[in-house]
């Protein structure tokens, strides 16, 4: 009989996104759970991928990314954030933002290091920290608007803190960090060796006239930070799994050591196509208005419901509080909603390490108006 090794992550199961999408498929429910569009990416982008495949760009790309794509990432970063990273030493193309996060965490977290996590948080952070022997230190965002309580953060920082992970615009809450937040963080960690990972994959989805303030715009922070972005989110191509990381040369060198042994490189024709397509700024410049229109349409459709809605400030997710409908645990309510009402959402307790339940569901509004209208029609009947 084989004595199989014990699990390295014994308390980690299948992700909530996979669970709820599978249940949605099983029940033929409208899937507003997992964060992907139900509409296609721009046709010219598809044509470019086909063009480069036919031209023979089907072999390994350079490990750090196609040079033309890294150059255009650098140019775009300067246009949007006023800072131009060196495309050769400070920009790395990865197989999705999740791989970039994995490589960044693995590059800098050592056994016994403490990593400050603001929760609710995306579920990819904590398992990698633990696999590195690090210790997650959790700080809850403050209700009702999920802002950062910097006094709490300060209290949780110790001599063992090596890293703080940010996410703005924030998944799942839609909260957006301000320049004041960045200034506070910079003051808090000044004189320390604490590094920062800033997960900014929803950078072009900020609403109501607000601006996304990137770590790259903050001179004191960017010299100690990895900033993670996602072509999948920006160009409606989540299935392509193409992202990138911008970091100082010394941090980039360490990230690339990890990247080369995780995926080595990212599909060449996708990189070539994105390099060409991103030269046209119209798409990402128009993205805030595009997704605000979808947010507003969905929320307008929900006006007659018993859900409590505070419009999301960013991302393509909308939180809805359901305590006037049910006192069920949010996972139970989400599953019942999928089975009985035919609409799938994500319970926000899944984003807390201790499964804290504040009676919120997360709905994805990166969908066609027909999909959003059909889902809302079911939700208002509750």
UniProtKB/TrEMBL annotation:
Q: Which GO terms describe its molecular function?
A: kynurenine-oxoglutarate transaminase activity; pyridoxal phosphate binding
Q: Which cofactor does it need?
A: pyridoxal 5'-phosphate
Highest taxon, organism lineage: Bacteria
Q: Which SUPFAM superfamilies match?
A: PLP-dependent transferases (SSF53383)
Extract the CDD domains matched here. AAT_like
Known PANTHER family for this protein? FI04487P
* Family designation: Belongs to the class-I pyridoxal-phosphate-dependent aminotransferase family.
Q: What is this protein called?
A: Aminotransferase class I/II-fold pyridoxal phosphate-dependent enzyme
